Amino acid sequence: MSGMAVAENAAPALGDVLVRLAEIVFKQKGRDVQALAPISLRLEPGSFTSLIGPSGCGKSTLLNAIAGFTPLTSGSIRVDESEVAGASPRVGVMFQQYALFPWFTARGNVEFALKRFDMPSAQRRDAALKALAEVGLEGKGDYYPGQLSGGMRQRVALARTLAARPNVLLMDEPFGALDAQTRLSMQELLLVIWEMRRTTVLFITHDIDEALVLSDRILVMSAAPGRIVDEIAVSSPRPRSVENIDDAYIANRSRMLRLLRSADNTH
To answer: Domain tally for the chain?
Structure first.
């Protein structure tokens, strides 16, 4: 009985994202342009979902809507049962560009992102240093962005997003500008952090192998106006690598290639 009572009173898992018939229409030269066809999806708490599709299909538009940056024309988006009506500390966002302030140190960049919280300066400093250590930059807090490599700058950007401990992490091709070796290192780091934190992740990529290595689930979008045309559950055991693939990986890769080629042909 006591075990049942604990289960009944347990707090719901955080990081639950529910998108219902979300549509976005922009005005362009006096006419309506549908950027995002009505889309419905759910991101389960602690899941890792990749979103892939042709350029201009609305992947970033959907991500910006979940982040609260782009208002919906119709439909709704809820994060942990609260309607998205603007940017929220519950949702962290990371883009391909580092967007670091060059006049701040690595620690200063992370601390700056925490100033929106009612947090004493000593606590901000401690949280920033912990986040930098989590991404492998312990001892680099006093370095300026110009003194860091591209991979290290992206680690600072990741630390800045993680320091606020969001329930949902939205990532828009965060490793797209990195060289192959650094990109692989960042993927491995992200998975280590995700395994520890189990933050809900939505990850946009153009790279099929990146999606297959990182994700529990892959959503494939059509050409604009974007709609989800397929959902692929990734069952290959973790940890995964493009150097060690199984039959399921090969089958999913072929399926995604067919879908993306079909989407390009309808563009």
So the answer is: 2
Give the CB-side neighbour count of residue 90, counting CA atoms within 13 A. 16
Judge if 201 and 161 occupy the same domain: no
Sign of the CA dihedral running 66, 225, 187, 181 = negative
Q: Which DSSP helix (H) or strand (E) runs through 122?
A: helix 121-134
* pTM, two decimal places: 0.90
Report the CATH number at residue 209. Answer: 3.40.50.300
Q: Are strands 168-172 and 31-43 parallel, antiparallel or unpaired?
A: unpaired
Q: Which residue has the tokens 């639950």?
A: 16
Sign of CA dihedral 27, 28, 31, 32: negative
Strands 217-221 and 82-83: unpaired
Length of the chain: 267
Rounded to an integer, what is the distance from CA 72 to the centroid of its chain?
Answer: 19
In one-letter notation, the amino acid at residue 63 is L
Domain that holds residue 22: 13-90+167-265
What the block records as the tokens of 64 is 């910006």
Looking at the structure, tell me whether residues 84 and 183 fall in a common domain.
yes
225 & 242 share domain: yes
Q: How far apart are CA 182 and CA 189, in angstroms?
A: 10
pLDDT (tens digit, 0 to 9) for every residue of the chain, 267 residues total?
Answer: 445 444 445 556 899 999 999 999 988 888 888 989 999 999 999 999 999 998 888 999 999 999 999 999 999 999 999 999 888 889 999 988 888 999 999 999 999 989 888 888 999 999 999 999 999 999 999 999 999 999 999 999 999 999 999 999 999 999 988 899 999 999 999 999 999 999 999 999 999 999 999 999 999 998 888 889 999 999 888 888 877 788 988 999 999 999 888 766 655
60 and 134 share a domain?
A: no
